Amino acid sequence: MKKFLISLSLLGAFNSQAEKAVFPEKNFDFLANYCLNCHGEEKEEGNVNLEDLDFNIQTLQGAEAWQKVLHSLNAGEMPPEDKKQPKNHEKADFLDDLSKTMVTARKALSDSGGKITMKRLNRREYQNTIKELTGATVDVDTLPTDESAGRFDTVGSSQFISSDQFETYLKLGRAAIDEMFLRHKLASVKSKTYRVEPEKVFNPQIDKFINGKEKTYAQFRKWQKIVDELAKAPENKEIVEKIYKQKPKNKNLPKEYDLYHSAHKLKGAPNHKDFGFKEAWHPATTFRFIHTQRDFALYKHFASLPKRDSGSYLMVGKGYGRVDIGSEDLVPGSYTLRVRVAAVDGQPAHRHFIDIGHPQIQTGWQFGLFPGKPIATRQVTGTIDKPQIIEVPIEIDSNTTKEFSVQEKQHNDSVKASWGTIGEYAKKNGYGIPPAIWIDWLELEGPHPPKKTPALQMDWWVQNSRSLKESDRARKILQKFSAKAFRGVSAKKDYVDGLLNIFKLRRSAGESFDVAIRKPLSIILASPGFLYFNESSTGEGRRQLNDRELAVRLAYFLWSSPPDAQLMSLAAKKQLTKPEVLNQQVKRMIADSRADKFVSGFLHQWLDMERLDFFQFDTTLYREFDDATREASRQEVYKSFAYLMRNNKAGQIGKLLNSDYVIINALLATYYGIEGVTGDEYRKVNLPKSSPRGGLLGMAAIHAMGSDGAESSPVERGAWVLRHLLNEPPPPAPANVPQLSAVKGQNLTTRQKLLAHQAEPQCASCHRKIDPIGFGLENFDPVGKWRDMEFAVVSGGKRKVQSKKGHKIDPAGAFHNGPAFKDYFAMRELIGKRETDFAQGFTEHLIEYALGRPFGFTDEDLVNEILASAKSNDYNVSSFIQALVSSEAFHQK
Fold first, then answer.
1. How far apart are CA 243 and CA 16, in angstroms?
2. At CB < 8 A and 24+ separation, what contacts does 498-507 make?
3. How far apart are CA 115 and CA 156, in angstroms?
4. What's the predicted TM-score (pTM) here?
5. For 538-574, how does the pLDDT look when each residue is reduced to its tens digit (9 = 90+)?
6. Cα torsion for 871, 875, 879, 885, to the nearest 10°?
7. 236: confidence class by pLDDT, cuts 50, 70, 90
8. Is 402 helix (H, G, I), strand (E, B) or coil?
9. CA-CA distance, 230 to 236, in Å (whole number)?
């Protein structure tokens, strides 16, 4: 307190024409009476010490601290309800003075805040830009990471790069240039069709397996008959008794297994080799197979199925689970994979889907494994009598695995996922998991004639410039390519001269023209002019962006890609800064499919969707939530936002909080139990009033992020809602939070476990806000399916299982210092009424993402300006974007 009293007394010693943001001294009494007992030098609750706050607001840090005080008082959070409360007029006077001071502070500090740090292309933007320039897709995993804690990957201050990383850019650039030349050379290559008939591949192997087993079993039975007779002979009585007195070699097998394992000890024992067995213990192994392995019964069943002569049934968990196609001769380009396929009647709907991906190395008898996420997942609606043909576009580049596979949709770890399932089915049918998918044939056609992409349309090849000298031709190529790479900025003469000298050195070393030019071209793709956004600063504060700079900023905001020809043409004519032209361009860009890159890039970071990939969801507990379903749930979030963004009439952002429809495809409809939806495209599906779906809170991805892969986490879910939907982010968890060791292993509800956690005083203050919301979402299981009962996850030997005794879920609760709710539906209604708070948080994050700098105190006026504009347009998502792009801040450096 002494600090800001001294600063107040010194104010008169300075004469300045600039407006000062000074909080009136009379408000010290309010702080002393109602705040400093908990937030002073002696007691800093929540690490907040108001005695250190300067009444003369001269820094952004100080202004942001005072802004938090203003927000806390306005929200009624401070003073706490169990503390002494100010009278209404006292609080009103204090808030009035502080609000006016904050307005002055924003004006006074606006020139020192809100600056955009020099930005480079992040991984996403780099990959997209290289694709636009060369047609190649580069692997960006070796590039420096972009995201820092709480920041978007577009924020310049969080983008770091070291000198040795330029070597990585150089290598990636060279790889892209090499592929560009290769694609240019292959543009006239004729398309080929590769075809696989699975019955010609699988059936002979299955028949061979069956015939081999039948022969082995027949020989064993002959051997077994002799051994059984010998075991009854008097001369072997003592030997047999001794064998059976020994510790059993396998408790799960009949005792005869021990006899057959030691049959060579019997007097008169037959020679195992006479029956085709290489070792004396091999007959016992065959006996074990007969009793424990169901492969023979499985193959026998599949061999008996109809239509086997013209196709093949896919197996799951064991056997032949996928069909492969490909060739090392495949060249970069666009292809089409076709599969004639049918769904088997009588199998559950969730099994009527196929995954398309790259095959993994063969593992034993299991061929149905992918090494990563599937390239695509498709619903199968064809029947055995009337199969359908499914087409999937495939893109092959220089680094692509040149082999592709089709399998029934399943977990990558399908063996583990099917452990329990195989046994369950085998008890019923004697062989295991019945087939759900039949494949007639598989085709791969390509490469198709290339589309007229910017990379192939570029005229920098100057193929017809025969009159040019070689060096002049090279110079023209380097000039045009660098101008394209530098997004409309022409390279200086000495820079081009240096590149040309490198070209000449390569030529003098014996390289051809097309090879020698590649080194300087790849240098362009590793230069600052390409990697960084060229928004030069005058050093005299802020300045207006020119039309070219505006086109670049707009393109990377909405497309994460370079501006197209239309934007650059408008910029060259200096028309883009005209409000009506800019408004039309934003509409055009939002409608363009390239805006999907903005949707995925922004939402992934805004909604913390990296959590969807944090955990490996237990495959034995949640068999349906495989990689394809996880990806579909992610896309539901993106597609729902994109639908609102492109819908001017019904695109209110509040529909992300609560809506009477979903944007889903057949896979998610099957997962959610919504009938009448077929096809792989996402579309609007209306919901009945009783549905828990609709809005973010009804999406599987949101609930999966609020789990640990095995059990739901009300804490994660509640904190996520506060942070992203209600714009009330809870503070970080304190250090050394005690674990729930006291209740570990007990069959308690999640609510009971967390109530035990709240007994810790350092936890209770935050959990009273977080947990009630999380409890209200407990009707969703860890993978977002609706449930009425909760079952604890316990160890079941080699795998986790759900306890047999469940608990009825109690979702009732109340918002802290707010209304109560009886269930999830009532809570969702209350959250749906908080559209203004949701819009505020969305706007703050949109500003940070678009401008490439941390959102700060000086942006309060910009937020209010955007919110006012959006409100006048019913909070349509596109109106937020239009208002931001039209703002002065978006047009300034």
1. 105
2. 499/523, 499/524, 500/471, 500/474, 500/475, 503/471, 503/474, 503/478, 504/471, 507/470
3. 10
4. 0.85
5. 556 678 999 999 999 999 999 999 999 999 999 999 9
6. 70
7. very high
8. coil
9. 7
